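Lecture notes, unit on protein representations.

Consider one protein chain, 129 amino acids long.
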Amino acid sequence: MTNLPADYSYSEEHEWIDATGNVAGRTVRVGVTNVAAEALGEIVFVELPVVGDTVTAGEPCGEIESTKSVSDIYSPVTGTVTAINGELDAEPGTINEDPFDAGWLFEVQVTEAGDLMDADAYASANDIK
């Protein structure tokens, strides 16, 4: 299993942001963890929020479709979407291959963080060694 980036924060719903600490007022990148990517199986389609949309921490803001199922994407923060990863339209499997880098989903100008964990707490909660 891929190591979790220590400088990221994680949600209970298996999303990550590429920052730690107080993120209000910052722009963060959002993605799904390797735990989610592995559980989903081969990802074939991603529906992302639109630039300018407001997302709310803990609320669905998109979907990931795999050969196994369709799952909601939950925003780990509240704020305004400032960018999306357009590469995922043609290559949604990038999420499986590189969930913490090339497989990022969208960026948000944060007004408020949701309930987030550090890498150690996320690993412990998901029995990752």
